[in-house]
Design brief:
With 264 residues, the chain is an alpha+beta fold. It has 7 helices and 17 strands. The strands form 5 sheets. Strands 1, 2, 3, 5, 14 and 17 form a 6-stranded antiparallel sheet that branches. A 4-stranded antiparallel sheet has the order 4-15-7-13.
Length: 264
Protein backbone atom coordinates (compact mmCIF):
# COMPACT_ATOMS: atom_id res chain seq x y z
CA UNK A 1 0.00 0.00 0.00
CA UNK A 2 1.25 3.50 -0.81
CA UNK A 3 -0.47 6.77 0.08
CA UNK A 4 -0.92 8.75 -3.13
CA UNK A 5 0.05 12.37 -3.69
CA UNK A 6 -2.88 14.56 -2.71
CA UNK A 7 -4.41 17.15 -5.00
CA UNK A 8 -7.26 18.01 -2.63
CA UNK A 9 -7.55 18.21 1.14
CA UNK A 10 -9.38 14.83 1.23
CA UNK A 11 -7.23 12.76 -1.14
CA UNK A 12 -4.60 11.84 1.43
CA UNK A 13 -7.25 11.00 4.02
CA UNK A 14 -8.98 8.57 1.65
CA UNK A 15 -5.73 7.02 0.41
CA UNK A 16 -4.40 6.22 3.89
CA UNK A 17 -7.68 5.41 5.65
CA UNK A 18 -8.08 2.39 7.94
CA UNK A 19 -10.62 1.62 10.66
CA UNK A 20 -8.48 1.85 13.79
CA UNK A 21 -11.47 0.98 16.00
CA UNK A 22 -11.62 -2.54 14.58
CA UNK A 23 -9.53 -4.79 16.84
CA UNK A 24 -9.25 -7.30 13.99
CA UNK A 25 -7.66 -4.58 11.85
CA UNK A 26 -4.78 -3.83 14.20
CA UNK A 27 -2.36 -5.82 12.06
CA UNK A 28 -3.25 -3.72 9.01
CA UNK A 29 -2.59 -0.52 10.97
CA UNK A 30 0.79 -1.78 12.12
CA UNK A 31 1.76 -2.89 8.61
CA UNK A 32 0.76 0.42 7.05
CA UNK A 33 2.69 2.44 9.63
CA UNK A 34 5.71 0.22 8.98
CA UNK A 35 5.42 0.63 5.20
CA UNK A 36 4.38 4.26 4.64
CA UNK A 37 4.38 5.74 8.15
CA UNK A 38 0.83 7.11 8.04
CA UNK A 39 -2.72 5.97 8.82
CA UNK A 40 -5.84 8.15 8.73
CA UNK A 41 -9.08 7.28 10.53
CA UNK A 42 -12.44 8.56 11.77
CA UNK A 43 -15.06 7.84 14.40
CA UNK A 44 -13.23 9.07 17.53
CA UNK A 45 -16.01 11.27 18.89
CA UNK A 46 -14.84 11.68 22.49
CA UNK A 47 -11.69 12.14 24.53
CA UNK A 48 -12.12 8.63 25.94
CA UNK A 49 -12.25 7.22 22.40
CA UNK A 50 -9.05 9.05 21.50
CA UNK A 51 -7.32 7.80 24.63
CA UNK A 52 -8.48 4.23 23.95
CA UNK A 53 -6.91 4.21 20.48
CA UNK A 54 -3.80 6.01 21.67
CA UNK A 55 -3.15 3.43 24.39
CA UNK A 56 -3.85 0.60 21.92
CA UNK A 57 -0.96 1.58 19.66
CA UNK A 58 1.32 3.77 21.81
CA UNK A 59 3.12 3.69 25.10
CA UNK A 60 2.11 7.31 25.74
CA UNK A 61 4.76 9.68 27.05
CA UNK A 62 3.76 12.71 29.11
CA UNK A 63 5.52 16.05 28.70
CA UNK A 64 5.31 19.76 29.48
CA UNK A 65 2.04 20.45 27.67
CA UNK A 66 0.17 17.18 28.18
CA UNK A 67 -2.55 16.45 30.70
CA UNK A 68 -2.04 13.68 33.30
CA UNK A 69 -3.51 11.07 30.93
CA UNK A 70 -0.86 11.95 28.32
CA UNK A 71 -3.14 13.74 25.86
CA UNK A 72 -2.37 17.31 24.86
CA UNK A 73 -5.24 19.61 23.96
CA UNK A 74 -4.11 21.57 20.90
CA UNK A 75 -5.98 24.87 20.86
CA UNK A 76 -5.38 28.61 20.93
CA UNK A 77 -4.83 29.31 24.61
CA UNK A 78 -4.53 33.06 24.08
CA UNK A 79 -1.34 33.02 26.18
CA UNK A 80 1.30 31.48 23.93
CA UNK A 81 1.36 33.66 20.81
CA UNK A 82 4.92 34.36 19.66
CA UNK A 83 6.48 32.25 22.45
CA UNK A 84 9.23 30.00 21.09
CA UNK A 85 8.32 26.34 21.41
CA UNK A 86 4.62 27.04 21.98
CA UNK A 87 3.47 27.63 18.40
CA UNK A 88 0.99 24.76 18.50
CA UNK A 89 -0.94 26.49 21.29
CA UNK A 90 -1.64 29.58 19.20
CA UNK A 91 -3.60 30.12 16.00
CA UNK A 92 -0.77 30.94 13.62
CA UNK A 93 0.62 28.78 10.86
CA UNK A 94 3.21 26.14 11.75
CA UNK A 95 6.16 25.27 9.52
CA UNK A 96 6.96 21.61 8.75
CA UNK A 97 8.50 19.93 11.79
CA UNK A 98 8.77 16.77 13.84
CA UNK A 99 7.67 16.68 17.47
CA UNK A 100 10.03 16.87 20.46
CA UNK A 101 13.10 17.33 18.27
CA UNK A 102 15.15 18.56 21.24
CA UNK A 103 15.16 15.11 22.87
CA UNK A 104 18.02 12.66 22.26
CA UNK A 105 15.38 10.13 21.19
CA UNK A 106 12.14 11.82 20.06
CA UNK A 107 8.94 9.76 20.35
CA UNK A 108 8.39 7.43 17.42
CA UNK A 109 4.66 7.98 16.93
CA UNK A 110 2.19 10.83 17.03
CA UNK A 111 -1.59 10.43 17.13
CA UNK A 112 -3.59 13.55 16.23
CA UNK A 113 -7.39 13.87 16.31
CA UNK A 114 -9.65 16.79 15.48
CA UNK A 115 -12.37 17.34 18.10
CA UNK A 116 -13.65 20.61 16.64
CA UNK A 117 -12.49 22.00 13.29
CA UNK A 118 -11.69 25.68 12.82
CA UNK A 119 -14.21 28.06 11.33
CA UNK A 120 -11.57 28.91 8.74
CA UNK A 121 -8.12 27.43 8.06
CA UNK A 122 -6.38 25.03 10.41
CA UNK A 123 -5.62 22.59 7.59
CA UNK A 124 -3.04 19.93 8.45
CA UNK A 125 -0.08 19.75 6.05
CA UNK A 126 1.94 16.53 5.99
CA UNK A 127 5.26 15.89 4.26
CA UNK A 128 6.87 12.50 3.78
CA UNK A 129 10.52 12.78 4.83
CA UNK A 130 11.39 10.13 2.27
CA UNK A 131 10.22 12.49 -0.49
CA UNK A 132 12.24 15.39 0.95
CA UNK A 133 15.36 13.24 1.12
CA UNK A 134 14.90 12.05 -2.47
CA UNK A 135 14.34 15.61 -3.68
CA UNK A 136 17.53 16.89 -2.05
CA UNK A 137 19.52 13.87 -3.17
CA UNK A 138 18.52 14.51 -6.79
CA UNK A 139 18.56 18.31 -6.86
CA UNK A 140 20.65 19.62 -3.96
CA UNK A 141 23.28 16.99 -3.06
CA UNK A 142 25.52 19.59 -1.38
CA UNK A 143 22.65 20.59 0.88
CA UNK A 144 21.96 16.97 1.77
CA UNK A 145 25.64 16.41 2.55
CA UNK A 146 25.52 19.09 5.27
CA UNK A 147 22.14 18.00 6.66
CA UNK A 148 23.43 14.51 7.47
CA UNK A 149 26.32 15.85 9.56
CA UNK A 150 26.01 14.96 13.25
CA UNK A 151 26.28 18.63 14.29
CA UNK A 152 24.13 20.05 11.50
CA UNK A 153 21.93 21.83 14.04
CA UNK A 154 21.33 22.31 17.74
CA UNK A 155 17.69 21.57 18.59
CA UNK A 156 16.09 23.04 21.70
CA UNK A 157 17.11 25.22 24.60
CA UNK A 158 20.29 24.86 26.67
CA UNK A 159 19.45 21.22 27.44
CA UNK A 160 18.82 20.38 23.76
CA UNK A 161 20.89 18.23 21.42
CA UNK A 162 23.16 18.47 18.42
CA UNK A 163 21.74 16.25 15.68
CA UNK A 164 21.50 15.84 11.91
CA UNK A 165 18.30 16.52 10.03
CA UNK A 166 18.68 13.15 8.30
CA UNK A 167 20.24 10.54 10.54
CA UNK A 168 21.71 7.34 9.08
CA UNK A 169 20.52 4.25 10.92
CA UNK A 170 21.62 0.61 10.85
CA UNK A 171 20.43 -1.30 7.82
CA UNK A 172 20.67 1.65 5.44
CA UNK A 173 17.59 3.40 6.84
CA UNK A 174 17.16 7.08 7.69
CA UNK A 175 15.20 9.19 10.16
CA UNK A 176 14.31 12.87 10.00
CA UNK A 177 14.34 15.54 12.72
CA UNK A 178 13.33 19.16 12.12
CA UNK A 179 12.05 22.33 13.69
CA UNK A 180 11.97 25.80 12.17
CA UNK A 181 11.26 28.14 15.06
CA UNK A 182 13.61 30.09 17.33
CA UNK A 183 14.70 26.91 19.09
CA UNK A 184 16.95 25.63 16.34
CA UNK A 185 20.49 26.92 15.74
CA UNK A 186 22.06 25.89 12.48
CA UNK A 187 25.74 25.11 12.08
CA UNK A 188 27.43 27.88 10.02
CA UNK A 189 28.16 25.39 7.22
CA UNK A 190 24.55 24.20 7.21
CA UNK A 191 22.81 27.57 7.37
CA UNK A 192 23.28 28.41 3.69
CA UNK A 193 21.47 25.23 2.68
CA UNK A 194 18.46 25.56 4.98
CA UNK A 195 16.38 27.39 2.33
CA UNK A 196 16.74 24.33 0.05
CA UNK A 197 15.49 22.11 2.87
CA UNK A 198 12.52 24.38 3.52
CA UNK A 199 11.64 24.54 -0.16
CA UNK A 200 11.71 20.76 -0.50
CA UNK A 201 9.63 20.28 2.66
CA UNK A 202 6.93 22.64 1.38
CA UNK A 203 7.07 21.31 -2.19
CA UNK A 204 6.06 17.84 -1.00
CA UNK A 205 3.39 18.94 1.47
CA UNK A 206 0.03 17.22 1.20
CA UNK A 207 -3.08 18.89 2.67
CA UNK A 208 -5.23 16.97 5.12
CA UNK A 209 -8.49 18.59 6.16
CA UNK A 210 -9.99 16.90 9.21
CA UNK A 211 -13.59 16.91 10.38
CA UNK A 212 -14.61 16.22 13.99
CA UNK A 213 -13.59 12.71 15.05
CA UNK A 214 -11.06 12.31 12.24
CA UNK A 215 -7.33 12.09 12.68
CA UNK A 216 -4.07 10.41 11.80
CA UNK A 217 -1.32 8.28 13.28
CA UNK A 218 2.14 8.97 11.88
CA UNK A 219 5.76 7.95 12.22
CA UNK A 220 7.38 10.99 13.85
CA UNK A 221 10.78 9.83 12.55
CA UNK A 222 9.53 9.95 8.95
CA UNK A 223 6.72 12.47 8.48
CA UNK A 224 6.82 16.24 8.97
CA UNK A 225 3.62 17.98 9.98
CA UNK A 226 2.49 21.59 9.76
CA UNK A 227 -0.75 23.57 9.68
CA UNK A 228 -2.26 26.70 8.22
CA UNK A 229 -3.36 29.61 10.43
CA UNK A 230 -6.96 29.44 11.58
CA UNK A 231 -9.93 31.34 12.95
CA UNK A 232 -12.43 30.05 15.48
CA UNK A 233 -12.25 27.66 18.46
CA UNK A 234 -10.34 24.80 16.80
CA UNK A 235 -9.68 21.96 19.27
CA UNK A 236 -7.61 18.83 18.73
CA UNK A 237 -6.04 16.05 20.79
CA UNK A 238 -2.49 14.80 20.41
CA UNK A 239 -0.65 11.84 21.92
CA UNK A 240 3.05 11.08 21.61
CA UNK A 241 4.86 7.87 22.44
CA UNK A 242 6.64 4.79 21.25
CA UNK A 243 4.88 1.92 19.46
CA UNK A 244 3.38 -1.04 21.26
CA UNK A 245 4.27 -3.11 18.20
CA UNK A 246 7.39 -3.90 16.23
CA UNK A 247 8.24 -0.90 14.03
CA UNK A 248 11.39 -0.52 11.91
CA UNK A 249 13.26 2.66 12.76
CA UNK A 250 13.02 5.42 10.19
CA UNK A 251 12.54 4.77 6.48
CA UNK A 252 14.42 3.30 3.55
CA UNK A 253 15.66 5.86 0.99
CA UNK A 254 13.45 5.98 -2.08
CA UNK A 255 14.42 3.28 -4.55
CA UNK A 256 16.68 1.54 -2.03
CA UNK A 257 16.22 -1.76 -0.28
CA UNK A 258 17.21 -1.65 3.35
CA UNK A 259 18.87 -4.60 5.06
CA UNK A 260 16.14 -6.75 6.69
CA UNK A 261 15.58 -6.12 10.39
CA UNK A 262 16.60 -9.64 11.31
CA UNK A 263 20.14 -9.06 10.01
CA UNK A 264 20.80 -5.90 12.01
Amino acid sequence: MRCVSATSARDLFRACYLDVRDHDGARAVEEQISEVGLVTFDGLDSRDAVLDIATRYLNISTHRDSDPDGLTVIRDTGRHTHRAGFGGLGRGELAPHTDRSSLPAPPRLMLFVCARPAEQGGICLLTDGQAVHSDLQANQPDALATLIEQRAAFFGRADGVFAPVFDHLPGGRLSIRLRQDDLVRWHPFTRAYVPHLRTAAVRHQQPLELDAGEGYLLDNHRWLHARTAFLGPRRCYRALGNPRFRLPRGFAPHGATAIPLETR
